[in-house]
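In the previous lecture we treated proteins in isolation. Real proteins rarely work alone, and many bind small molecules. This record shows how such a complex is specified: first the sequence, then the SMILES for flavin mononucleotide.
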Amino acid sequence: MSKAIIIDEEKCIGCSLCINDCPNSYLYLENKKAHTHESGCIECGHCYAICPQGAVRMGNYDCMDEAVIPMTELDSDILLQAMRSRRSIRHFTKQPVEKEKLRKILEAGRYSPTGGNAQNVSYTILGSRQKIAEEICVRLFRQGQKIGSPFVRFLKRVRITDDFFFKGAPLVIVISGKNKVNASLAAAYMEIMAESLGLGVLYSGFFVVCARLSRKLRKLIELPRGEEVITCLIIGYPAVKYQRIVPRKALKAKKL
Ligand SMILES: Cc1cc2nc3c(=O)[nH]c(=O)nc-3n(C[C@H](O)[C@H](O)[C@H](O)COP(=O)(O)O)c2cc1C
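The predicted 3D structure, ligand included, written as tokens:
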């Protein structure tokens, strides 16, 4: 590990913008220059991002020295409309997801926020193991159905078809980690990105259950030690089109 933050004293003008924006008081001003303490940096990069002089480097990252690209403004009405009209997709065409689209989906996860900037979320694309993973899940759920049907009436009528889990979708991404919130946020970012690319997404809670129950499945997906499967995104081109926005319960919000 290199030093987390390196200040170029020649360039630093002592404006203190980095110091004021540091969430961990890792930087301080001395002799009109920014300096760093020994420890306590979470490498969030705010100092690097805010410096008007380009005087900050992040020792453990490749700093591309990119000038900030002005963000094209997101239209909030379009965004809200997209969020209201998104639906879980359970029918997919066979069309594969283009590599470039997959890259963007993964980038959306990578750039999602994580507590303490831990960046501790893993992504596993099932690829050639998708079929066998689904076979394991289907077997498990069929066993469960046999055991549970006498007690839970609706279980009997559920048809656990061979494509019950992944619905014939061409892409399955398992999201794992030690922190549920971080991994869930990453998944939400990825879902929105996928939808903006014309793709449909289904979160699979069923797959999470199977990963919890089946060591064979965990081994197949090479789940990193100490991590658990937090969610699973099933992604592909939708084979269904929805005509209207589904109503939601009244907003539970209060102002104290
Ligand atoms: C964490 C999570 C897990 C889910 N797991 C499943 C699942 O295993 N199978 C399924 O058919 N739908 C699953 N869903 C989809 C929900 O049933 C769906 O979001 C909900 O019915 C609302 O429908 P909508 O997403 O189309 O608005 C899951 C959704 C979430 C957020």
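Summary for your notes: Residues 109 and 188 are 8 Å apart (CA to CA). Residues 5-58 form a domain with the Alpha-Beta Plaits fold (CATH 3.30.70.20).
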